[in-house]
Amino acid sequence: MTRRTVFRAWGHDFRPEYTQLGALRTHFPSTPIVALTATADRLTQRDIKTQLNLHEPKVFLSSFDRPNINLLVRPGQDRVGSVLDYIARHPQDPGIIYCLSRKTCETISQKLQAKGVKAAHYHAGLTPLQRGKAQEAFLQDDIQVIVATIAFGMGIDKSNVRWVMHYNLPKNIEGYYQEIGRAGRDGAPSTAILFYSFADVMQMREMVTKDVPARQAQLNTAKLERMQQFAEAASCRRKILLNYFSETLGEDCGNCDICRNPPTTFDGTLIAQKALSAVFRSRERVAINLLIDILRGMRNQAVLQGGYDQIKTYGAGRDLPYLDWYSYIHQMLNDGLFYIAYEEGYALKITERGHQVLKGQLNLPLRKFQPAEKAEKPTRAGKKAAVTATIGTPEAQLFDKLRKLRKAIADEQGVPPYVVFSDATLQEMAAERPISRVGMLGISGVGMKKFETYGEAFIKLILEHGGGQYVPSDSDSMFNEPRPRVAVAAADKPVSDSEDATIQFHQMGLTPEDIAERRGLALSTVKTHLYNAYAKGRELRIHDFVSDAEMAEIFTARAQLGGEPTLRDLFDHLREKYDYFQLRMAALYHKRLRGQ
Q: Residue 415 maps to which CATH number?
């Protein structure tokens, strides 16, 4: 692999001049050289040394961990609806939506604007003036959402970006991690949402292999597969990211969708030891597919030429089919037992953690994946974020007022709002309500200079806010759909007949989408009402959601899979043709037919 080929793997094709930096060592042999980067995996670190002609340089690595970012992966269906739902629950939080194409950027931006969201788009097809205007509006909090291609955010010093969404699958983990790192730079809780479908993989695979040398296409595909494995993973997502950058996390993070909805596990130590032993006995020269062939006792050319049919663990896993091994090995890869040496023909190398499992010093749970469909439980980071996300609470009301005061001061001084105070500082003010100099100086981010400049104005606002009272709804949660704010008389019942109202609209002939719009609810909430009602035995027009032909196809798939397949198994088996709501309704209908 040539230097140029490896370099292109960085994803920095837009800066080819970097390949010429090695000349500095020739022209200035005695001048110290320092290379700095934010997200570099093992291969990239190696290539930086090569490109810059560095000889045995000292390498300093700090942690890649960003524990304040909540990592979520969501199905790729109804992406626009999901985006709108999220923004509706976080109406004040600035965010970035990354899209694959310029056209998609413009389309999504227009759809958000049509729904009343302050949004703009940003891509290379705009004039410098247009890009500068959009960027400045985002920095000044004049718009909430920027919809952009991946170049946006490079060097953007906006600390209070509260969320980043990837509308399409990124081409590699390095780019993904760099982009989500633009959220929560102030250390306050933030969210990264990745929309994923297998169609994205196919589209991206075509893009990363088109008009590039064969070796580069192979490397790009391997990197894309690691991104796909992250999206489909059934284990802690933060562990996967950190393992990719050769950093180990001792325990599950508790701040990703998998940790909040953990799948069932079994003791997979013996399975892992078979795979690890095969890698070790093959002198760490085999890639994933060849490893599976060795374990399953295959007698193909690659196995026989390498003499791998002679090692002790040849055929040790012939009791498991190919796809099972494929799943288990990728779980082991995600758990940090292996890493892929791309520069050595994609050979698997055993890590220190892998050797511990191989020696029996560490057990390894393997996971049977189940979809995370239910609302996530708030985590430690999530509880802090609830100040801004929970609509109507005293903290949220005060936080909103503090933000407006900050915005007014920033506009007057001609600086971005976060220069005055960060979101994290305002959140702490809203929770602690300091009304004295000592109290205000105890807030993180409030030093003597900032107190002297801004402190009295914020204390005055906190005192003014203290005169009002509010009794929050016990249904408010940063992970639940907010109920519509309905004015009712004191004798009226609280909004507890929400499901009944949805069913009444359904019986009037309205579609779920129409009901959601009419009632001011998220579509997912309406679908939950319909599912719960049908599960309780209420009669619905089930074929409005799933036709007879569709029912037949789903029933056939269930029979092919056997037993009681999970929704995820059905979803994948049917190639994502039906959403989870349709599959769940079909499953209930099937049970009714069987009299269960």
A: 1.10.150.80
What is the tally of structural domains in the chain? 5
Token code pair at residue 225: 């597969």
Is 42 in the same domain as 113?
Answer: no
Query: What SS3 state is found at 467?
Result: coil
Contacts by 361-366, CB closer than 8 A, 24 or more apart: 363/267, 363/269, 364/267, 364/268, 364/269, 364/272, 364/332, 364/335, 364/337, 365/265, 365/266, 365/267, 365/268, 366/265, 366/266, 366/267, 366/268, 366/271, 366/272, 366/328, 366/331
Residue 223 has pLDDT above 70, yes or no: yes
Within a domain: residue 484?
A: no
pLDDT in tens, 127-149: 989 988 999 999 999 999 999 98
Statement to judge: residues 90 and 186 lie in one domain: yes
Distance CA 542, CA 502 (A): 14
71 φ, ψ (degrees, to nearest 5): -95, 120
Average pLDDT over residues 152-156: 61
Give the separation between CA 44 and CA 33, rounded to whole angstroms: 17
Unique residue bearing structure tokens 């802690």: 236
* CA separation for the pair 39, 41 (Å, rounded): 7
Q: State the Cα–Cα distance between residues 67 and 474, nearest whole angstrom.
A: 28
Q: What is the DSSP string of 90-156?
A: STT--EEEE-SSHHHHHHHHHHHHHTT--EEEE-TTS-HHHHHHHHHHHHTTSSSEEEE-TTTTTT-
Residue 40 has pLDDT above 80, yes or no: no
The phi, psi pair for 141, rounded to 5°, reads: 65, 25
Instruction: Round to whole Å and give the CA distance between 73 and 233.
Output: 10
Q: What is the pLDDT of residues 365-378, one digit of tens each?
A: 887 643 333 334 34
What is the per-residue pLDDT across 467-522, written as a single tens digit (0 to 9) for each?
432 222 222 222 233 333 322 222 233 323 578 888 888 888 888 888 887 887 77
What's phi and psi for 73, nearest 5 deg?
-120, 130
The residue written with tokens 């009295």 in the block is 456
How many CB atoms sit inside 10 A of residue 24's CB?
Answer: 13
